[in-house]
Specification:
alpha/beta, 6 helices
Length: about 220
Amino acid sequence: MTALYIILGILGVIALLLIIAVIRTLAIKAPEIKKCETEITKEELDIAAKKLGDMVRVPTVSKNEDEDLSQFYKYHEVLEELFPNVHRTFEKTVLNGTLLFRWKGTDPTRRPILFMGHQDVVPANDHGWKCPAYSGTVIDGDIYGRGAMDCKSTMYVELQAIEELIEEGFVPPCDIYLEYAINEETGGDGAASAMRYLKEKGIKLAIVIDEAGAVVDR
Protein backbone atom coordinates (compact mmCIF):
# COMPACT_ATOMS: atom_id res chain seq x y z
CA MET A 1 0.00 0.00 0.00
CA THR A 2 2.89 2.34 0.80
CA ALA A 3 4.21 2.02 -2.78
CA LEU A 4 0.74 2.76 -4.13
CA TYR A 5 0.49 5.91 -2.02
CA ILE A 6 3.90 7.01 -3.26
CA ILE A 7 2.89 6.49 -6.90
CA LEU A 8 -0.39 8.31 -6.37
CA GLY A 9 1.48 11.13 -4.67
CA ILE A 10 3.91 11.46 -7.59
CA LEU A 11 1.05 11.44 -10.09
CA GLY A 12 -0.72 14.08 -8.03
CA VAL A 13 2.36 16.32 -8.04
CA ILE A 14 2.75 15.86 -11.83
CA ALA A 15 -0.93 16.67 -12.36
CA LEU A 16 -0.60 19.77 -10.18
CA LEU A 17 2.46 20.95 -12.10
CA LEU A 18 0.65 20.41 -15.40
CA ILE A 19 -2.33 22.42 -14.19
CA ILE A 20 -0.05 25.25 -13.03
CA ALA A 21 1.78 25.21 -16.38
CA VAL A 22 -1.50 25.36 -18.33
CA ILE A 23 -2.83 28.22 -16.18
CA ARG A 24 0.37 30.20 -16.54
CA THR A 25 0.40 29.59 -20.30
CA LEU A 26 -3.17 30.85 -20.62
CA ALA A 27 -2.30 33.87 -18.52
CA ILE A 28 0.56 34.92 -20.81
CA LYS A 29 -0.51 37.61 -23.22
CA ALA A 30 1.04 37.62 -26.65
CA PRO A 31 3.07 40.75 -27.29
CA GLU A 32 1.30 43.36 -29.34
CA ILE A 33 2.49 43.31 -32.92
CA LYS A 34 3.12 46.82 -34.10
CA LYS A 35 2.21 47.60 -37.64
CA CYS A 36 4.95 48.91 -39.87
CA GLU A 37 4.55 52.65 -39.97
CA THR A 38 6.59 52.99 -43.15
CA GLU A 39 4.46 53.03 -46.25
CA ILE A 40 5.81 52.86 -49.77
CA THR A 41 4.82 55.94 -51.72
CA LYS A 42 3.77 55.95 -55.36
CA GLU A 43 6.94 57.88 -56.16
CA GLU A 44 9.07 55.11 -54.59
CA LEU A 45 7.15 52.45 -56.50
CA ASP A 46 7.66 54.36 -59.75
CA ILE A 47 11.41 54.61 -59.09
CA ALA A 48 11.58 50.87 -58.32
CA ALA A 49 9.66 50.04 -61.50
CA LYS A 50 11.92 52.25 -63.59
CA LYS A 51 15.10 50.72 -62.18
CA LEU A 52 13.93 47.14 -62.60
CA GLY A 53 12.63 48.02 -66.06
CA ASP A 54 16.06 49.38 -67.03
CA MET A 55 17.62 46.10 -65.87
CA VAL A 56 15.11 43.98 -67.79
CA ARG A 57 15.68 45.92 -71.01
CA VAL A 58 19.20 44.51 -71.37
CA PRO A 59 18.82 41.03 -72.97
CA THR A 60 21.32 39.11 -70.85
CA VAL A 61 20.60 35.67 -72.30
CA SER A 62 22.71 32.89 -70.71
CA LYS A 63 26.20 32.59 -72.19
CA ASN A 64 29.26 30.44 -71.73
CA GLU A 65 32.36 32.34 -70.69
CA ASP A 66 33.93 32.05 -74.18
CA GLU A 67 30.93 33.59 -76.01
CA ASP A 68 30.06 37.21 -76.77
CA LEU A 69 29.45 38.83 -73.37
CA SER A 70 28.82 42.35 -74.65
CA GLN A 71 25.24 42.46 -73.34
CA PHE A 72 26.44 41.49 -69.88
CA TYR A 73 29.05 44.26 -69.86
CA LYS A 74 26.36 46.68 -71.01
CA TYR A 75 24.24 45.41 -68.12
CA HIS A 76 27.14 46.12 -65.73
CA GLU A 77 27.16 49.72 -66.95
CA VAL A 78 23.42 49.99 -66.27
CA LEU A 79 23.91 48.63 -62.74
CA GLU A 80 26.66 51.18 -62.12
CA GLU A 81 24.29 53.99 -63.12
CA LEU A 82 21.39 52.66 -61.05
CA PHE A 83 23.36 51.83 -57.89
CA PRO A 84 26.20 54.38 -57.57
CA ASN A 85 26.63 53.95 -53.79
CA VAL A 86 27.23 50.23 -54.19
CA HIS A 87 29.80 50.72 -56.92
CA ARG A 88 31.54 53.50 -55.01
CA THR A 89 31.71 51.50 -51.77
CA PHE A 90 32.16 47.88 -52.83
CA GLU A 91 35.19 46.15 -54.29
CA LYS A 92 34.09 44.73 -57.66
CA THR A 93 35.63 41.71 -59.37
CA VAL A 94 34.49 40.54 -62.81
CA LEU A 95 35.17 36.90 -63.64
CA ASN A 96 34.33 36.38 -67.33
CA GLY A 97 31.14 38.36 -66.89
CA THR A 98 30.22 36.98 -63.47
CA LEU A 99 30.04 39.75 -60.86
CA LEU A 100 31.49 39.46 -57.37
CA PHE A 101 31.12 42.39 -54.98
CA ARG A 102 32.67 42.76 -51.52
CA TRP A 103 31.39 45.16 -48.84
CA LYS A 104 34.11 45.44 -46.22
CA GLY A 105 32.86 45.05 -42.65
CA THR A 106 34.18 46.51 -39.40
CA ASP A 107 35.26 43.23 -37.79
CA PRO A 108 37.73 41.13 -39.83
CA THR A 109 37.41 38.23 -37.35
CA ARG A 110 33.80 37.60 -38.38
CA ARG A 111 33.11 35.21 -41.22
CA PRO A 112 31.49 36.82 -44.29
CA ILE A 113 27.98 36.41 -45.66
CA LEU A 114 27.31 35.78 -49.36
CA PHE A 115 24.12 36.72 -51.22
CA MET A 116 23.71 35.09 -54.64
CA GLY A 117 21.61 35.62 -57.73
CA HIS A 118 22.16 35.62 -61.48
CA GLN A 119 22.21 38.09 -64.33
CA ASP A 120 21.18 35.71 -67.09
CA VAL A 121 17.76 34.89 -68.43
CA VAL A 122 16.48 32.11 -70.68
CA PRO A 123 15.84 32.96 -74.36
CA ALA A 124 12.42 34.43 -75.14
CA ASN A 125 10.24 33.04 -77.91
CA ASP A 126 7.87 35.23 -79.92
CA HIS A 127 4.63 33.75 -78.61
CA GLY A 128 2.42 34.63 -75.67
CA TRP A 129 4.02 37.93 -74.68
CA LYS A 130 1.68 40.77 -73.80
CA CYS A 131 4.44 43.17 -74.81
CA PRO A 132 8.02 42.72 -76.12
CA ALA A 133 10.08 40.31 -74.02
CA TYR A 134 12.76 42.84 -73.09
CA SER A 135 10.63 45.97 -72.93
CA GLY A 136 10.40 46.29 -69.14
CA THR A 137 6.91 47.73 -69.68
CA VAL A 138 4.77 48.49 -66.61
CA ILE A 139 1.06 47.65 -66.97
CA ASP A 140 -1.29 47.97 -63.99
CA GLY A 141 1.65 47.77 -61.62
CA ASP A 142 3.18 44.67 -63.22
CA ILE A 143 6.56 44.72 -64.98
CA TYR A 144 6.75 42.66 -68.17
CA GLY A 145 10.00 41.24 -69.49
CA ARG A 146 12.50 38.41 -69.23
CA GLY A 147 14.16 38.45 -65.83
CA ALA A 148 11.52 40.57 -64.11
CA MET A 149 11.01 37.68 -61.67
CA ASP A 150 13.93 35.35 -62.33
CA CYS A 151 16.23 36.76 -61.24
CA LYS A 152 16.72 40.48 -61.83
CA SER A 153 14.11 41.27 -59.21
CA THR A 154 16.35 39.53 -56.65
CA MET A 155 19.31 41.55 -57.84
CA TYR A 156 17.29 44.76 -57.65
CA VAL A 157 16.06 44.13 -54.11
CA GLU A 158 19.54 43.26 -52.80
CA LEU A 159 21.30 46.13 -54.52
CA GLN A 160 18.62 48.71 -53.71
CA ALA A 161 18.53 47.72 -50.04
CA ILE A 162 22.30 48.06 -49.79
CA GLU A 163 22.21 51.32 -51.77
CA GLU A 164 19.90 52.80 -49.13
CA LEU A 165 21.88 51.37 -46.21
CA ILE A 166 25.06 52.98 -47.53
CA GLU A 167 23.21 56.28 -47.90
CA GLU A 168 22.20 56.01 -44.23
CA GLY A 169 25.83 55.49 -43.23
CA PHE A 170 25.48 51.84 -42.24
CA VAL A 171 28.56 49.62 -42.30
CA PRO A 172 28.14 45.84 -41.68
CA PRO A 173 30.05 44.13 -38.86
CA CYS A 174 31.24 41.38 -41.23
CA ASP A 175 32.15 41.39 -44.90
CA ILE A 176 29.20 41.06 -47.27
CA TYR A 177 29.64 39.45 -50.68
CA LEU A 178 27.28 39.57 -53.65
CA GLU A 179 27.68 37.11 -56.52
CA TYR A 180 25.77 37.24 -59.81
CA ALA A 181 26.57 34.61 -62.46
CA ILE A 182 25.99 34.79 -66.22
CA ASN A 183 24.85 31.21 -66.86
CA GLU A 184 22.81 29.93 -63.93
CA GLU A 185 19.93 29.01 -66.24
CA THR A 186 22.16 26.67 -68.23
CA GLY A 187 24.12 25.25 -65.29
CA GLY A 188 27.30 27.03 -66.35
CA ASP A 189 30.52 27.70 -64.50
CA GLY A 190 29.84 31.29 -63.42
CA ALA A 191 28.99 30.70 -59.77
CA ALA A 192 31.61 27.96 -59.49
CA SER A 193 34.30 30.36 -60.74
CA ALA A 194 33.35 32.83 -58.01
CA MET A 195 33.54 30.08 -55.39
CA ARG A 196 36.98 29.06 -56.63
CA TYR A 197 38.08 32.68 -56.42
CA LEU A 198 36.94 32.94 -52.80
CA LYS A 199 38.58 29.63 -51.93
CA GLU A 200 41.89 30.77 -53.44
CA LYS A 201 41.67 33.87 -51.26
CA GLY A 202 41.16 31.68 -48.18
CA ILE A 203 37.69 33.13 -47.54
CA LYS A 204 35.39 30.91 -45.47
CA LEU A 205 31.77 31.98 -45.48
CA ALA A 206 29.39 31.89 -42.53
CA ILE A 207 26.30 31.49 -44.71
CA VAL A 208 25.26 31.60 -48.38
CA ILE A 209 21.80 32.92 -49.28
CA ASP A 210 20.55 32.13 -52.78
CA GLU A 211 17.20 32.34 -54.60
CA ALA A 212 16.40 28.65 -53.99
CA GLY A 213 14.48 27.22 -51.04
CA ALA A 214 16.81 24.50 -49.77
CA VAL A 215 18.68 24.74 -46.46
CA VAL A 216 22.00 22.88 -46.48
CA ASP A 217 24.52 22.56 -43.63
CA ARG A 218 28.09 21.71 -44.59
